[in-house]
Amino acid sequence: MSSLKEKMYRFMQGRYGMDDLGRFSMIVILVLMVLSMIFQSGLMNLMVCAGLIYVYYRAFSRNISKRYGENQKFLAFRDNLRSRKTSTVRVFKCPTCGQKVRVPKGKGKISIHCPKCNTDFIKRT
User: Fold this and answer.
1) Does 96 share its domain with 80?
2) What's the whole-model pTM score?
3) 3-class SS of residue 124
4) How many other β-carbons are positioned within 10 Å of the β-carbon of residue 94?
5) Helix crossing, 42-60 with 20-39: angle to 10°?
6) 31 CB burial (10 A radius; 0-12, 13-18, 19+)
7) Which domain holds residue 105?
8) Are residues 68 and 114 in the same domain?
9) For the residues of 43-85, what is the DSSP string, one character each?
10) CA-to-CA distance for 76 and 83, rounded, in angstroms?
């Protein structure tokens, strides 16, 4: 059994392997696989096969710098989506002049002062 492990280790040397993009792709493929079993769709089966080929192509690729760049773009996109969900401010428009005013989120009812027209208005954050 250890010789098989050594052979696999030698085979993977110099290859990219799995990363966050590969793991995300595998999860999407597994969901598509379950859906294709439920709905008996030939198109979904084709998408599952194409996805598996893509994941294995990335994992066995020797072009490490290109795969690393793809993963970095995916991580930046994922982090951008996560940061949008966890916003810590709310934006309100002043009822008088329409100026946008940013206030901290989760403070309850607060009095907001408009810097443009000096109007005070009360909103719930």
Assistant:
1) no
2) 0.63
3) strand
4) 19
5) 160
6) exposed
7) 89-124
8) no
9) HHHHHHHHHHHHHHHHHH-S-HHHHHHHHHHHHHHHHHHHHHH
10) 10
| Pairing assessment for the beta strands 89-93 and 120-124 based on DSSP bridges | unpaired
| Same domain assignment for residues 72 and 41 | yes
- Tell me the C-alpha distance between 60 and 74, whole Å: 19
Tell me the two tokens of residue 19. 């990363």
Integer CA distances (angstroms), 45 to 11, 31, 42, 110, 114, in order: 29, 11, 5, 55, 57
Residues present in the chain in total = 125
Q: Is 25 helix (H, G, I), strand (E, B) or coil?
A: helix
Q: What is the pLDDT along the chain (125 residues), one digit of tens a residue?
A: 678 989 988 988 999 999 999 999 999 999 999 999 999 888 999 999 999 999 999 999 999 999 999 999 999 999 988 877 666 888 999 998 989 999 988 888 999 999 999 999 989 88
How big, in percent rounded to 5, are the helix, strand and coil portions of the chain? Answer: 60, 15, 25
DSSP-derived secondary structure letter, 106: T
And the tokens for 20?
Answer: 């966050």
